[in-house]
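Structure in, sequence out. Go:
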């Protein structure tokens, strides 16, 4: 006779009170396991997503290598490296991306850690300030930058700041683009770092490290940043993608990074411009893969520095 649920519950409680191991109650409906759900829909969704991303890329590649009347030709790719401005624009975009990542992390990491440790009430204020670039359109931002750049040399021509206004607009490395890209990247950097800090008990880690005699630079560099490795990689990931694909600000300010160069040659050399777009996409994926791998690699030393004080 199959025991009732009430009887099973009573036997389990009596066994627990007597210190005996309680046996599992038999399944009234039998011991059959539930059938696994079919994976047909999962495969269909993945197939559609893959087709959505891969079909345009394949079509673009076919357009670059298929020449009507000549068959298959890789001229667009062989002439790419020798194209005027290709190397300079690519290196400029990579340099701008590296500088933007460094500046945005240098601004956001200490601010968020300080707010998390010392002033939690300021977190809404910092969040609003970091999310404001999502509200301001890039065209409005570049209009303000252009106004400041025009106003500075006219009113500060007899001061040392005149040379500063000229230096930030140097075509070899426009620092003004780094400043503008840092503003645009702040929302993404903030979201990535804030998610990482929420997943870590920052006050407990800081108190434990400080109680062991660790200095503040050691606590930040070796304890907190080691636990924020994935968040830092995510912030760099998003900033790199933003800088390599940004066109509006650089074009209106008169500079020529990689995205602007691609558009400038698209009218005269359509096949080469599509080939450059495919190549830039592959380069971006490669760099993002490197950053993602760097974020998932475990840190070599995440512990707290041992104290130098002697025990009594």
């Amino acid at each position: 006779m199959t025991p009732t649920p009430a009887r099973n519950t009573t036997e389990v409680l009596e066994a627990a009170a007597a210190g005996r191991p309680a046996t599992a109650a038999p399944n009234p409906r039998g011991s059959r396991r539930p059938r696994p759900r079919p994976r047909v829909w999962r495969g269909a969704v993945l197939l559609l997503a893959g087709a959505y991303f891969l079909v345009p890329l394949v079509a673009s590649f076919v357009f670059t290598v298929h020449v009507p009347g000549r068959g298959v030709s890789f001229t667009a790719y062989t002439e790419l490296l020798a194209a005027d401005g290709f190397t300079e624009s690519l290196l400029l975009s990579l340099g701008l991306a590296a500088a933007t990542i460094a500046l945005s992390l240098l601004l956001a990491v200490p601010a968020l850690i300080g707010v998390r440790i010392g002033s939690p009430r300021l977190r809404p204020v910092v969040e609003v300030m970091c999310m404001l670039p999502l509200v301001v359109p890039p065209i409005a931002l570049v209009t303000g930058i252009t106004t400041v750049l025009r106003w500075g040399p006219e009113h500060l021509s007899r001061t040392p700041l005149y040379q500063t206004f000229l230096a930030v607009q140097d075509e070899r490395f426009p620092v003004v683009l780094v400043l503008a890209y840092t503003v645009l990247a702040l929302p993404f950097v903030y979201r990535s770092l804030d998610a990482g800090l929420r997943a870590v008990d920052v006050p407990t880690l800081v108190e434990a490290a400080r109680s062991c005699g660790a200095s503040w630079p050691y606590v930040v560099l070796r304890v907190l940043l080691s636990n924020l490795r994935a968040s830092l990689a995510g912030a760099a990931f998003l900033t790199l993608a933003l800088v390599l694909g940004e066109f509006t600000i650089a074009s209106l300010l008169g500079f020529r990074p990689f995205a602007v160069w691609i558009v400038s040659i698209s009218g005269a050399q359509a096949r080469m411009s599509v080939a450059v777009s495919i190549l830039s996409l592959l380069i971006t994926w490669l760099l993002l893969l490197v950053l993602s791998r760097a974020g998932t690699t475990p840190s070599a030393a995440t512990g707290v520095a041992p104290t130098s004080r002697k025990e009594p």
